[in-house]
Structure of Crp/Fnr family transcriptional regulator:
Amino acid sequence: MPTALPPHTYLMIRKIESNYTLTSEEKLTLQKLPVQTVDVKPGQDIVKMGDQPTQCCLLLEGFSCVYKLTLEGKRQIMALHIPGDMPDLQSLHLQVIDINIASLSPCKLGFIQHRDLHLLFEQHPRLITPFWHETLVDASIFREWLLNVGQREGYSRIAHVICELLLRLKAVGLVEGNSFHMPISQAELADATGMTPVHVNRVLQSLRNNGLIHTNRRQIIIPDWQKLQEAGEFDSLYLHLKND
Amino acid sequence: MPTALPPHTYLMIRKIESNYTLTSEEKLTLQKLPVQTVDVKPGQDIVKMGDQPTQCCLLLEGFSCVYKLTLEGKRQIMALHIPGDMPDLQSLHLQVIDINIASLSPCKLGFIQHRDLHLLFEQHPRLITPFWHETLVDASIFREWLLNVGQREGYSRIAHVICELLLRLKAVGLVEGNSFHMPISQAELADATGMTPVHVNRVLQSLRNNGLIHTNRRQIIIPDWQKLQEAGEFDSLYLHLKND
DNA sequence: CGAAGTATTGAACATAGTCAATAACAGTGG
DNA sequence: CCACTGTTATTGACTATGTTCAATACTTCG
């Protein structure tokens, strides 16, 4: 007898359950949410500024990001998404999308219709809370990044982003020991930290030289978690992870 | 016969109504929300990192801000609040506060108990949406600030912040003609834009010299809205104001 | 009026950016 | 399996924007 595949909403439910106790009926309803999956290549726009989507996107596999461009074409990446994240949950209540969302690696996406979520919330009003919660954590991460980009020097900035990724990936089981896969180019890291690729490269070298990270392909190995956290002034409070 | 004073929730309701149609019963319930008012001096912390409040704060008069500090004591201001804003609405669902909120000018605050809001939402589930909406707009503003601080040069950054304030203040009726009161020191503007006070001072001078703003005390006069918007690369989409 | 906070100025300096060239790597098809 | 191609990473030299430090003027308010 074949084992049933987990539902597409598996990671989403897992995340919700780390903060909320779901009744078995609520959980079942979430498991049965209609999800339409799509595969996309790296570097593809998933949602664009000005769109008025009727569905939300759930990242099932891969990495994506939110970004905006200045008129001169400078790009700021404002958040990185990992499996289980819902990058455009805001579109449920903000009619016009004011950001761009793009894949950073090959991604598997699950699209959930707004009307299905609205229905879900009508039938189970208690479920509104964890979804609202998710958007509040997103906002918290934006704030921390603002502190990062506005006040920390390059060395700390990069260390901070790596710390955040480690903890978030750990929460969805994507960390093996002290290492994880980070399919992000230095140019993209530069856009995420408000630096130039050249400077990112130099900072990464000094992080390596100081023994805070090892890199192999796009695998990041963290030999000394304590030291990396200190370098990035990292305090995980803002991630609001319950099971630290 | 004396005219009844508007309820403390007046500005909040006004903001909600710019996006949602309230039934008269919903409106009445909102007007009757218990609000405890407090006056605070400039530069006072209202909420601190680590707090676990049982109430939300509604700004009735004055300006406040959200900020965080780095270990070396550098401060990043992440948002400015104007009357009608609810700076810590997030505390409804995030147990531990991960930011500091401080008054920038003398402020009148209204505190609303979480339990009263939860009751409100139980009785009128439809009202969850506008409050969720408010936190989504906050997040949108954080993102825009991240773009501002990460990718724009000083001149545009300051122009952008002024543009944002003008539109938001206009929405609550605090703009007279093309000018408004901005009780924020240059040092605070520096913390909001990730610059030094010295540099802010120089940028303000060049904005004045180019005729984009006039300043008088802490009154800002905007003689050429078009030019200021261009200088700040300002596009109001991210504010999600309905009545533009 | 006097004190404290705020704004302004100048000069030296530094972090990070720009430009440009080269090296390493990953994916492709013969 | 290897040459070919485009992308990504690395390096160096020069430059800029914005910082730091420190001194001076201006406001505001009791």
Q: What stands out?
A: The helical segments of chain B are 10-17, 24-31, 114-123, 128-151, 154-171, 186-193, 197-209, 225-231. The CA atoms of residues 55 and 113 of chain B lie 4 Å apart.
